[in-house]
Amino acid sequence: MSNLQKLCLVYFVALMIAASLNYIPGLTDQDGLAFGIFALDIYDDALHVASALWALIAGLLSHRAARSFLILFGLAYLGDGVFGFFTGYGYLDLGIFTNPSAGPELSLPRLFANLPHLALGGVAAWAGLRDRRHTA
User: Fold this and answer.
1) More confident residue, 39 or 125
2) Tell me, what's the pLDDT at 36?
3) What stretches pass through the bilayer (predicted)?
């Protein structure tokens, strides 16, 4: 199993944890905000579970599948995090279609709300794109 395949399995676990945040007592406040920072709804949970299953399948399938997952997932999540940082909502959970734009805001809460997608996406894209073992 290659390092990229192992990384996909780590992403599977991380994304399943993200999907379960709303269901762990004490992690959400009275307003439904996870860690008091961001709200997760059924669309977010579905996105995280689908992404986790994609990561699992890619990780178990092959190095090439893992690399493809990391690049595609990484760019999608990184873009979603950047978009969310500047508008308040992302596109992967359809938030831009169900909420009016909150406009750009340079604040710590906005950064922390989008940091998971920025970090997960950035690391995944970096790992997939820097891979020296390009398989044809």
Assistant:
1) 125
2) 60
3) 7-26, 46-62, 69-91, 111-129
Contact between 27 and 35 under an 8 Å Cβ cutoff? The reply is yes
Residue 114 tokens, joined: 């989008």
Q: What are the structural domain ranges in the chain? A: 3-130
Distances (CA, A) of 86 to 12, 17, 95: 27, 26, 13
Q: Which residues contact 53 (CB under 8 A, 6 or more apart)?
A: 12
Number of neighbours of residue 19 by Cβ within 10 angstroms:
19
- Tokens representing residue 95 in the block: 């938030």
Residue-wise pLDDT tens digits, 45-64: 888 999 999 999 999 999 99
**Would you say how long the chain is, in residues?**
136
Contact call for residues 10 and 59 (beta carbons, < 8 A): no
* Adjacent-strand bridge partners of 99: none
Q: Which helix or strand (DSSP H or E) is residue 66 part of?
A: helix 63-87
